[in-house]
């Protein structure tokens, strides 16, 4: 009993905040946004970081030259640390395009010990420094091989650093930039690229191109810094709305308002399809939240429970809690359950700029391009795999069946049905019948799914990394889809590394793959099917090893053109070729669903922007009230437990219960 | 005795070298540096040049065991085995594949692990012994039978159930504790109470049964009966004679486990968001950061061997009849 009393006393002493408050006292009363991360970022070095769990932090710390307009759709670039959008000019004599970037003169880095007490402003040489740093392979930039054939002089620059001996000392990248990167004056930089490639400007909206101050680079290269985790990877510095005041990827990451942040204001224009109150804060100074706390939360259950208690301002919706939070109407539209509505939650859903597809290895003799009839086999399978059912069963309706390779919201995305797999019924695309698929099977030479060579069911092989017990249901479902055509699907489950090996060697037959857009342009999806990117031949991103000369020629044209009606027509033509050849079953575009409490404002889906924290606003008072209401400790169990213990002791004391064994 | 200790300590080196070698074979033969590089570099735009650069930056471009291009001692030292595994022998853990200093992380994470594991273990030990003693005192009576049923029920339930159930009832429904989290300052107890309570409850089943069987064995011995016959009360017999004699096997088990408490609890730390060494290991496995996994395997082996040595020493100290090497 005494321990219970002690426990109550201890808890009472700490009762300034609710007993279950998981933060340092006081934080919940301040203008702080609370969120969580489930996997620690691997690196926050601007030249390296690429994963979405890294961009969440880095996107708000560093600023590349451009950003995506927060409220305009389709996605639109705008200057971030530049005075205007880069101006480009093509030089036919050298077949190069020059981009002129003019920096604002009020952009300063967050305070850092390497700057001393001075306010350090960004110059054009910092942008050049970042590009040069990218050219050094020891820094491990994932986009270097993309930029290598693009930026003039990049190859020579890489060779220059490759030739240097491996040391731990600082490499000063000043004045060693590629010949295509020219510092015109303190605030103007010229970047020349080979040929014409309009999507290049999208790369300028990624942290790879954020300015790097040489002083900090030199500071982190000092002996002993790495051993203390003092490096670009763990303490990045930039000009963003926030700086990283606490970086403990083992426990918590804290972003604090950057005192040197330049003038930046909430947008005053928005797409008409966004809600009416979207411009309530138009013209207000950014950022609106002083501190953003990300706590490490690996398990979905405690994350969700803390969100319901009001200790997280936002949460995703895992399949475990989906029914509790979301309901689907007859049209399949997502809405909040009454319980969530009562708590004042906001639902945010948007189709991701990602694609999950089933690929066929086009080098495979049975199902690939070598066999002219295999096209019909691939088309039949494309019809038979019922992705509508897949989305309903395994994703709780959170996805959209793909009619082509380009996700909605991106210019050039297919708005029509894929005529191979679907037909238009009213306004909806309806999957073609199994009968049509079976006809295609017969055309392919496999009537009723029988292999004429063996007289038995055709056997196909599906390579996957889904090896867990949880994946069994989905794999069984996939077997069933093929069985509809009489095909026996053999699952070859393997670990990630072996799977990658198979893909590189072209030994997989059918596989699942995905792509997350780097930038909102159809080119970023179509290049996944270009012959010059075939994985087996070149190690590129064309995992199906698909080759079609007509498609390749169209792609080359698309990549050179700006977003015009002519370009969109070419995209439609390229998509129709791919639909016909069916190197992929297009699969689905996942739908992101997240919940926000009513006290969080200015939350709108923008899947391309990484720096959206600065637009958030919190109603701290409303949050405090909700937390107080939702977290009152329940005291009766203390009494119940106390009485039970006393009762048990009395029973032991009283005869006949106290009779003991007498040894 | 001193000779024995010295001999055991000398045995440490070949054992740890073997552990190192086996770990090395496991990690570098089964999982090549190329695999590691691909796991770290992700899915997009990974080229051969990028792989080569990644390996070179981390020293994975060296030969595995023997460098034929080197001269002198370098044929041994300029190898992955020397650079990555032998260095562990002097507790130089190097940097993780993601670039963080492992030594600094270990130093930071050992404390939360210890803060959770040590109280859980000590409180659990006291509670288990006390309950076992109570059951022995009431041997064959209703309390003993009830206790046995309850302990079997607790043993049959997965530890995960206690964690999720405890979080649901005590933290979510009754709002007594934070569901998860950790603050290393003065507030630390608020975050540790719930996992400690749940850890103790989850361990009661097996603990009480184990200690009960040990104490019963002692209680059945002649000295206990003689003491009782001489007029000592049951409490005195249990407290003064049975418990001290029963402590010897208990001590053996306890001391062997103590060093391993540093390694943390894999599940507990993950569910309660405690940034200890257990969750460090899990994270490393999930992200395929084998530099960390290697370091943790080695550290675990060192602590385990060290624990066994301490156990032997304690055994000799606790029971004067035990003498090692004496003829």
Structure characterization notes:
- The complex is a heterodimer of chains A (663) and B (327).
- Chain A has 663 residues and is an alpha+beta fold.
- Among the domains of chain A are: 208 residues, Dipeptide-binding Protein, Domain 1 (Dipeptide-binding Protein, domain 1, Alpha-Beta Complex); 239 residues, Dipeptide-binding Protein, domain 3.
- In chain A, the strands form 7 sheets. In chain A, strands 11, 14, 15, 16, 19, 20, 21 and 22 form an 8-stranded mixed sheet that branches. Chain A has a 4-stranded mixed sheet with strand order 1-10-9-8, with helices on one face.
- In chain A, β12 and β13 form a beta hairpin.
- In chain A, α11 packs antiparallel against α13 and α18 runs antiparallel to α19.
- Chain A is globular, with a radius of gyration of 29 Å.
- The two termini of chain A are 30 Å apart.
- The relative contact order of chain A is 0.13.
- The model of chain A has no long low-confidence stretch (mean pLDDT 91).
- With 327 residues, chain B is mainly α.
- Chain B has 2 domains: 89 residues, no CATH class; 224 residues, Orthogonal Bundle (MetI-like fold), CATH 1.10.3720.10.
- Helix content of chain B is 73%, strand content 0%.
- Chain B is built from 14 helices and no strands.
- The longest helix of chain B has 36 residues.
- Chain B is flat, with a radius of gyration of 25 Å.
- Classes of the chains: A alpha+beta (663), B mainly alpha (327).
- At the A-B interface, α1, α4, α8 and α15 of A face α2, α3, α6, α8 and α9 of B.
